[in-house]
Please model this.
Amino acid sequence: MNVRTRIAPSPTGDPHVGTAYMALFNWAFARHYGGQFLLRIEDTDTARSTPESEASIFAALQWLGLDWDEGPDVGGAAGPYRQSERREIYAQYAQQLVDREQAFYCFCTKERLDRVRSEQQAAKQTTRYDGCCLGLTADAVAQRVAAGEEHVIRMCVPDVGECTFEDELRGPVTIPFSQIDMQVLVKSDGMPTYHLAVVVDDHLMGITHILRGEEWLNSVPKHVLLYQYLDWPMPKLLHLPLLRNPDSSKLSKRKNPTSILYYRDEGFLPEALLNYLGMMGWSMPDESEIFTKAQMVKAFDEKRISVGGPIFDQAKLAWLNGQYLRQLSASEFIAQTQSWMFNQDRLSQLIPLVQERVEKFSDLAPLVDYLVGARKTLTPDNFLHKTLDRDANVKILHHTSALLDDLRHWEREAIFELCQDLAQALDLKFRDYLFPLFVAISGRGVSLPLFDSLIFLGPDLSRARIRGALDAFSVSGKERKRLDKSLVKVTALLSSGQ
Ligand code: GLU
Model:
């Protein structure tokens, strides 16, 4: 069987374990059938896509050892593999759809669309574009475009009937067209939306099987229509179940670290993480829990994928990682710990922080324990402070965590400024403001300098610790909403520079 699979991550934020999970299944599927696995970067959201995020996707996949045959860095015959470099290709197909009256120019303003939406909501109808610009003549369109009027291109969707398609894991799925919006295909900035780009790219790149998250199931009717409009054969679809938190909600960083690089920096072996992801909704024919990626490739059978939401459980992952560590020979163990932390590069970042503070080598370990190891579990007692009460601690941790999540460049100066501005906006003495952060990062109120610690630990561990510190306070959903609101006000204050 000819097989070409792909993953198509968007380079926004940290490389997500969900991406690693999809990558593993697409990779194993392609390798099992002797096909190719592609990496495509979906960076059409120009406001949110960053080169740093793209680089961290590469780094994360390379660390995991999931190699791709074609992609932005390695090239390939179906390139370019970055959607931002394929604008003319999408424009050409968008025009073809317009010419065949399968898509249309839409000049509706945001105000009008909002009004229609509220009216539909009030009438308890499915919110959907009402077709206002469908009847415009070609001349009227040409005039309005020539006059520079802002516009998008939308696809035509029938009002009646239904779309039935086959999901290889779920069987036939039927969705009425009345629930499908007349999707924007080309945005006012000329960039394609996901829906146009994914169909065009999957076709032109010869993708035969699409393995992706189940959150895309409801979009399939739009894609089915586009494949029909363009007279292209539809690839086979396999919508994998989403990874879940232990409470069955969708995996979220509030409840589980989601950045792949967190697991690297915390000291997991890539083999163990891959093995664990391989157990998410799939099992080996003999049900063995410990298997290598080569064994997974050999035994891979998509029929063994189950669609019930698999729970991503930290304790189980840690157990599995322990199994891997125990299997290593002493010399492999030494090599692994060296490459993780005890290497020239990491130590030369660490030593300048401690050299001035020690009198003998035996002072080293207690100073750096939280930098080379996990910090202890926290309770509210760790945050007792002469001026900060519980709520003040919680607010500092919540706001700092949210702002650090959005910080693109993990640089000392930028983090320092962010903290200084936030302390000011919260009307706190800088020293007091820093106290809960010291505790969150090191487990104690006094430690090595905070900003050096944040840089040494890196964004993934630092963010996870500050976010995780909030758990000590059992913040309720209601309180979180209040905090989110307060954050909006503080952010407005920060951006107005006051
Ligand atoms: N950019 C989409 C995502 O990251 C790709 C979805 C797909 O595989 O079609 O979820």
